[in-house]
Amino acid sequence: MTVTLREVAAAAGVSIKTVSNVINGYAHISARTREAVEKAVADLGYQPNLSARGLRSGRTGAIGLVIPDLKNPYFAELAGSVMRAASQHGLAVFVEQTGGDRAQELAVLASPRMRMADGILFSVTGLDQADAATVAFPVTTVLLGERIFGAGADHVTMKNVEAARAATEHLIELGRSRIVALGARPHEVSGSAGLRLRGYREALEAAGIPFRDELVVDATPWHRADGARAVRELLAAGTGFDAVFAFNDTLAFGAMRALGDAGLGVPRDVAIIGFDDVDEARYSMPALTSIDPGRDEIAETAVRLLAARIGGDSTEPFVLHEAAFRIVTRESTGG
Amino acid sequence: MTVTLREVAAAAGVSIKTVSNVINGYAHISARTREAVEKAVADLGYQPNLSARGLRSGRTGAIGLVIPDLKNPYFAELAGSVMRAASQHGLAVFVEQTGGDRAQELAVLASPRMRMADGILFSVTGLDQADAATVAFPVTTVLLGERIFGAGADHVTMKNVEAARAATEHLIELGRSRIVALGARPHEVSGSAGLRLRGYREALEAAGIPFRDELVVDATPWHRADGARAVRELLAAGTGFDAVFAFNDTLAFGAMRALGDAGLGVPRDVAIIGFDDVDEARYSMPALTSIDPGRDEIAETAVRLLAARIGGDSTEPFVLHEAAFRIVTRESTGG
DNA sequence: ATGAAAGCGCTAACAG
DNA sequence: CTGTTAGCGCTTTCAT
Q1: How confident is the model over A165-175, as pLDDT tens digits?
Q2: Residues B114, B115, B118, B121, Cα dihedral to 10°
Q3: A51 CA, D8 C1': Å apart
């Protein structure tokens, strides 16, 4: 049933080495030979056995993508971008979900399945700085996400502080000054929430707008309902505000809903900007202004770095790449 | 660097066959030998080389999941379920997106990457009945989704007609009689839209409620904005209705938004039910009643069938499995 | 219950 | 420019 190199070689009247050379695009082959081989390959429907190639070459041609959860639109879209980038490099992508859980992240790293990959893209969430020293990556790894997490790997991240600052400045430019920071986490410093809050503060300071504790609200775990609840509580408490910087788009959707229910207009009464620029932001009503954190750039860069490491640059110093972000202006801020 | 069976065998003072037996859980091994081997495995941190195993055994231990688009929450969640089910069987999952496009579906099937899988789960969208005769699946395939698409493979699908009928009946039981079918497609018969419309008709007929053309509205491509637009047009046209059966949840979210904007209460003025039961249905406001089409059952069954085929039941007749659905009642229908 | 040895299909030295 | 050949690490007869 399965056709091997040997059979192709026999059919083409050459040695298997020549067939291998043709298949792998080796340069110095006479046109006649190449044609004969290509014909035999086509006639027999030859397809290389990837396990054999992998055993011999030490490469599988696959990379692993380890993320918290595909249910989260940000990660689903990131996975899509990674798959697109990987296919440019001829790499297959297999995905592992961790639930953002420390124990599961460790379990996935230790899993024998990971050895099917030449390298992994690992979006760390549960592991923390303290684990950095202990954790052993089973294969070449590129880290995704905002944590620093030691230096044992290349790292691709987003400009959380700068993007958050720009988001806040965008609202300030609209003439808003009572801006809610929706999704802040009081005790977090180095995670997304901490960094985005820092950008928020910087923008306020630069504009000379006082920072008000009552406008900084927690809304864990950043689901739609959390955004709605938080905004409802603000309204109930009589806290005045004219803009919301939501730390992710999902929170923003919830906030918009709560504002609508309260009869407030977006952006007339309250302008809103989100973060992530998920697909749905284009389709919400009103369409949501958001920060595109550079998802495609993150995916492409991460895959490129990983492919390069796999290709052999193991001596290069580790790289930290911060993707460029941009504000995507839509109806929710008057665009 | 990499530890092989040979080294483990040397360390344990046995042959590589014995080590292999221990690792693969072969029965007849003395306790002392097993312990010695396990100790050596642990000490040396041995991990099997999956390419070598694959070459020898003819199995890679991976399956492919071919779907239209991870951006679509239904497929993102399906992928999550598939990965969970696959990991029960010790299988890795790699994902390929097709964009639901016929050409890309063919390209993916022909891709050498597919040969990295022992089998694939293929959610067909672009290929149609006419392709059924021509298409060659590169490996064992289980089809996902509502199309019949020939009989050259096992097939796992959902009860579209029955579920749609139940959804409509649920609205009728609430006392509603002017029920919008949101997302119908006039000329489609065998796709989801056609089947769901059929269930809708059946429910109306059974209840003696007249079928009204003006309540059946197209809203392609089933995005949130399409649902909102369609509902707005209905309202503008003065078409009275007291319920909406949305053919997917995203349409339902859009519809709810448009109703809210128009000052109509859900479910007071208009009850709404969706289809898919995506995660977001729990978090929308109001929370959306929806049809769970049996996503987990679909994933588990498909993986189980595929694993069985891979395991060797190639002579078994092809199976058609229709997953059980259920209505998940939430606020949007007064739950 | 354990060992010896063949060979899965491919790539890459090394020859010629 | 092309052919010969030696393994990659594992599973699996076939012996013992």
Answers
A1: 999 999 999 99
A2: 20
A3: 11
Helices (H), B45-191: 50-57, 73-88, 102-110, 160-173
Residue A8: CB atoms within 10 Å: 26
If residue B206 lies in a helix (H) or strand (E), which one and from where to where? helix B192-207
Closest-CA residue to A311 (of A119, A64, A74): A119
Q: Which domains does chain A have, with CATH numbers?
A: 5-47 (no CATH), 62-158+294-324 (3.40.50.2300), 160-292 (3.40.50.2300)
| Predicted TM-score of the model (pTM) | 0.92
Q: Max alpha carbon distance in chain A (Å)?
A: 86
Contacts of B247 (CB under 8 A, 6+ apart): B164, B181, B182, B183, B184, B192, B193, B196, B219, B222, B275
What digits encode the pLDDT tens for the residues B11-45?
A: 888 878 888 888 877 767 777 778 888 888 888 88
The Cα A231–Cα A180 span in angstroms is 9
Distance CA A229, CA A311 (A): 49
* Closest of B145, B141, B63 to residue B96, by C-alpha: B63
- Contacts of residue A188, defined as CB under 8 A and 6 or more positions apart, other chains included, come to A194
The owner of tokens 């039941």 is B313
What does the alpha-carbon distance between residue A135 and residue A151 come to, in Å, rounded to a whole number? 12
Are B279 and A62 in contact (CB < 8 Å)?
A: no
Tell me the pLDDT tens digit for each residue of A23-76.
Answer: 877 767 777 778 878 888 888 888 888 888 888 888 899 999 999 999 999 999
* Residues by Cβ under 7 A, strand C: A 2, 4-6, 16-17, 20, 23-24, 46, 48-49, 52-53, 55-57; B 13-18, 21, 27-30, 32-33, 52, 55-56
Helix axes A249-261, B249-261, angle to 10 degrees: 40
CB B164 within 8 A of CB B199: yes
Which helix (H) or strand (E) segment is A31 a member of? helix A31-44
**pLDDT tens sequence across A248-280:** 999 999 999 899 889 999 999 999 999 999 998
In three-state secondary structure terms, B135 is: coil
Closest-lying nucleotide for A2 based on CA to C1':
C9
Q: Give the mean pLDDT of chain B.
A: 90
